[in-house]
Write a structure and sequence with these properties.
Strand order of the largest sheet: 10-9-8-11-12-14-13
Distance between the termini: 59 Å
Number of strands: 14
Radius of gyration: 19 Å
Order of helices and strands: EHEEHEHEEHEHEHEHEEHHEHEE
Oligomer: single chain
């Protein structure tokens, strides 16, 4: 073990989930999500100095600016600290969270007492290598809405599954779950987390909805608004009259653009936490 480690703070001006995906894919190291003055921040723990990572981050931001035609930036700082079991320190900072019917916890915490009584559903997600542990507002709202739905024996598709937490939640409520993600790391994490939670998974693939077969009673997509809008035709192709769409990862200022795009769907439920919105739509 090296004598020192580095703690790097990254605070995006916007599109926090894209920054999270980039940091996870680039470093594959322990990353913690924090909040500073209402903004999402990410803490990266690594044994190597962060200069190369910051250079890669600059290139990533330049590409985002060009593709999205927006002024995107980030702030950062890093410190060198004595290497005194920072992994254990990180673990203790990640606390369990209750969202609707679900109690989501990392493996190093004991189950919620309500899980032992059968009034909450226990889900184990170790958040070091994939986001989606229930702490982010977009995930928490999906779990709350999912708690209100009867998905027993229904075909449910989790698009952009990340850690697999939404699919696991649906499976534990009796659904037949199918899942996909364009990130191979997320696919591996989802498969591992389904096994760790002894949850049934019908099918899992690396890719998007183009590879999906048939129609689904519920499609869940915790993605950015711009991606949800682009996938509209695929949502239509894999749903039928009465099918539900659970859309999240949407900033409040993008909500009307999403609703305007989803012609032929009616709004059934809406949740708002801070700047984030989750929508439950039904196909007319």
């Amino acid at each position: 073990m090296k004598e020192f480690y580095y703690e790097l703070w990254v605070i995006p001006s916007s599109y926090a989930e894209l920054f999270a995906d980039f940091l996870l894919q680039t470093t594959q190291e322990a990353i913690e999500e924090r909040e500073i003055d209402g903004k999402n921040a990410f803490v990266v723990y690594r044994e190597e100095p962060p200069h190369t990572l910051l250079s890669q981050l600059d290139s990533f931001v330049a590409i985002l600016r060009e593709r999205l035609n927006e002024d995107i930036s980030y702030a950062h700082s890093f410190t060198q600290k004595p290497n005194r079991d920072w992994i254990e320190t990180y673990k203790q900072s990640v606390m369990p969270v209750v969202c609707g019917d679900f109690a989501v916890r990392p493996s190093w915490h004991a189950p919620h007492t309500a899980c032992n009584k059968g009034t909450l559903i226990d889900i184990v997600i170790d958040p070091a290598l994939a986001f989606g542990s229930g702490h982010h507002e977009s995930t928490a709202m999906c779990l709350e809405i999912l708690s209100s739905l009867d998905v027993r024996h229904q075909r449910v598709l989790d698009v952009g599954c990340g850690s697999g937490v939404l699919g696991i939640a649906a499976a534990k409520k009796g659904a037949r779950v199918f899942a996909c993600d364009t990130d191979s790391l997320a696919v591996s994490e989802t498969q591992k987390n389904f096994i760790n939670n002894t949850a049934n998974l019908e099918s899992l693939w690396c890719g998007s909805m183009e590879q999906a077969e048939g129609r689904y009673t519920l499609i869940m997509a915790n993605l950015l608004a711009v991606i949800v809008i682009v996938l509209y035709e695929q949502f239509c192709a894999h749903s039928q009259k009465g099918s539900l769409l659970l859309l999240s990862g949407i900033l409040q200022n993008a909500k009307e653009n999403v609703l305007a795009r989803f012609v032929g769907f009616s709004l059934q439920d809406e949740r708002i936490q801070n700047e984030w919105v989750a929508l439950l739509l039904c196909k007319d």
